[in-house]
Amino acid sequence: MLAVSGVTGTDELLKAIPAHLRLKKPLELPKALSEMALSREVRRMAGKNRGLTELTTFLGMGWTKHFIPAAVDSIVSRSEFTTAYTPYQAEASQGSLQQIFEYQTMVTELTGMEVSNASLYDGATSLVEGLVMASASTKGRKRFAIAQSLNPRWREVAQTYAPSNNWTFQDIAWDKATGQLDRSSVEAALASGQIAALVVQTPNAFGMVEDLEGLSLAAKAAGALLLVAIDPLSLSVIEPPSTYGADIVVGDMLGLGIPTSLGGPGLGLLATRKSLLRQMPGRVVGRTLDAEGKRAYCLTAQTREQHIRREKATSNICSNQGLMVVSASVYLALQGPAGLAEVAEQCASRLAYVRDALAKAGIRPLFSGTCIQEQAFVLGAGSRARVESACHTAGLLPGVWLADHVHHLPSETLLVCVNETHTRADLDLLVATLSTAGGI
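Above: the chain's sequence. Below: its structure in token form.
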């Protein structure tokens, strides 16, 4: 290899790396162990971890835990799913194509949109792909009006992509009384006539369900698209984005058949109007008839992918997301519309129980309004350290400290996410711990 490379040693390959960045001594590694001793040591180290099976978690902001029926893992573990690759050849990929078709159908039914892709890495990258679509669909506009109440972690990912795409973002404020979009801020942003997309989220980062009626007309009048980030579970009990004129819908299926697993893998959904199909990344599967008149599935469209447009591609959609599509599809099929709605209703009723119980300790929501499974609460001033210590002792992950991610909020603002897996004892433990350590 050295001879073919035309170098005398590996050090010569590292010349481009500045000398002060190169290690000048061997790595301080422990002595080698036998396989048996190494296995024992790894088990000891792994034993320090405490997962969501040992802790009671109320984390939200996209990392919501839901119950996953055993049938999901059983079906997903079948070899024809775990080893399936991108379905280039329809004649050899009817099973994969059918399950993708079923997934796309369920996403369009949830969102009310006309087409769905299959699929993206997570909600954040779905958002980025939505911005790429909006820019291409508005003759290359590079400016976006983005709600400050959008998931802050998704905003961070979009900011990462911004410099290489020459994007600029204009913040849309939230109403200080309601936590919903400030309509005057929306109007001011759209008035420039340079916005590619108005980007909003419902439920938003505070857990509030937004009233988005009329935003589509305002965006269109300014030559912009309306991009809506959603929680797919919420769409089982609230109006789908299509009813108020959304052009692009993005979200994350994490939790719906897909375990949180240290934060991933996720599954980004993206749905849109037919008129924007050619700007959408990923693949679209269609159902047709073969030469013998039998039902068959085929790739109807493949847009912007690396194997289609090569160096001109703007997306890199890989086949590993196919397994996540199967997981989400099986979960959605098992639950059905009524089952999804029941899960959402159980989440909402448990959240109401927590909200009412915390009120007795003087702990109020940051904003009042409609919430489904998560809501921001303001704890007592200076109580954060006490709350963290008490929750650690109780084996609780109480939620996300929202002020760490969103500016201009009290430092004791806690986003609490409740789900159908929580028992009455879990809820009472959370309430008792927060009331004692963080009460007002």
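The CA atoms of residues 102 and 376 lie 36 Å apart.
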